[in-house]
Design brief:
The chain has 296 residues and is α+β, with helices and mostly antiparallel strands. It contains 8 helices and 6 strands. The chain has helices at residues 46-57, 81-98, 106-111, 126-193, 201-215, 218-235, 247-269, 272-292, and strands spanning 7-14, 18-27, 32-37, 60-70, 77-79, 117-119.
Length: 296
């Protein structure tokens, strides 16, 4: 079974005072590139969270976002009354010295001044810590389920494309046989037109055999068939056990080898119809290569 690198997962957990939601989004990447965006109160947990979830993510460009909602009425800000009292006394003294009226709206005036509010640093309680990791693990599990679902879609896609290439490869054979006869006939006709030149027919036959052998594509067809089978074997069964990381890279290497054989087949074809088939095979292979980048 193959897994997709693309996916999304959400996990929610609660502590007595907070509701924590963690969302994880994954796109394809050669290595694991994990970016975390969490509230400041949970910053100290980032390293631990990265260590816990990285093995399950394996590869991909991953963005993890955590949001915290307070379930109980609470406030981390308090009025700094000594500072406010000092501000009012200074403003009244300034008004008396300058002969101006004190402000009509003391609240708006004083609360706009610096340091009138005190913000307490939030502490992480053990229950909040447990809820954060519970939500993160739930998000990873949901992401994995998403990747499995997308992996099944990729499996069906690859099987269709491999079958198409195999079918196109079978269509090459009739043209392969006829083109050899056409090449032989064309060379003999060209030599026959040169009446003033005498040539050794035995040597000509040897050269024809050598030339035709250079155009033979039997080995390329055999190797391409082998690569197609190996690609399907590497895919595994759609409901099979979870593979090790790096299966997408392996499929990419096999696709490269398939491309080499298809290119050689095209260069040796020397036949318009065979070249059309090769072009269609290349189109199928390019679609495979594009989607292989999404395989974990």
């Amino acid at each position: 079974m193959i897994l997709s690198m693309t996916g999304f997962g959400r996990g929610i957990a609660s502590s007595p005072e907070r509701k924590i939601t963690v969302e994880i989004k994954s796109l394809n990447s050669k290595q694991l590139d994990l970016f975390m965006r969490v509230p400041s109160c949970f910053r100290e947990l980032e390293i631990d969270a990265r260590t816990r979830i990285a093995p399950a993510l394996e590869r991909g460009k991953v963005e993890m976002t955590a949001a915290v909602e307070h379930t109980e009425p609470t406030s981390n800000a308090t009025l700094n009354l000594p500072v406010i009292e000092s501000y009012r006394a200074q403003v009244e003294e300034m008004a008396a010295r300058l002969g101006i009226e004190p402000p009509a709206d003391w609240y708006a005036t004083l609360l706009r001044l610096p340091d009138t509010l005190q913000t307490k640093v939030e502490e992480i309680h053990p229950a909040d810590r447990d809820a954060f990791f519970e939500a993160a693990c739930a998000a990873v599990d949901a992401l994995t389920d998403f990747r499995i679902t997308e992996g099944r879609k990729l499996y069906d896609f690859f099987c269709d494309k491999i079958a198409n290439i195999g079918s196109l490869l079978s269509q090459v054979e009739p043209f392969e046989k006829s083109r050899i006869e056409k090449i032989r006939q064309r060379l003999e006709e060209q030599l026959a037109s040169l009446r003033s030149i005498d040539y050794d027919k035995g040597r000509l036959e040897q050269e024809l055999i050598f030339y035709i052998e250079k155009l033979d594509v039997s080995e390329e067809k055999l190797r391409l068939r082998s690569h197609l089978d190996y690609f399907l074997d590497t895919l595994g069964e759609p409901e099979g056990p979870r593979p090790e990381a790096g299966q997408g890279k392996k499929l990419g290497f096999i696709a490269q080898e398939m491309g080499r054989e298809i290119n050689t087949l095209g260069s040796k074809s020397n036949n318009a119809e065979m070249q059309k088939i090769v072009v269609r095979m290349k189109d199928e292979l390019e679609q495979i290569k594009e989607q292989v980048l999404n395989v974990l």
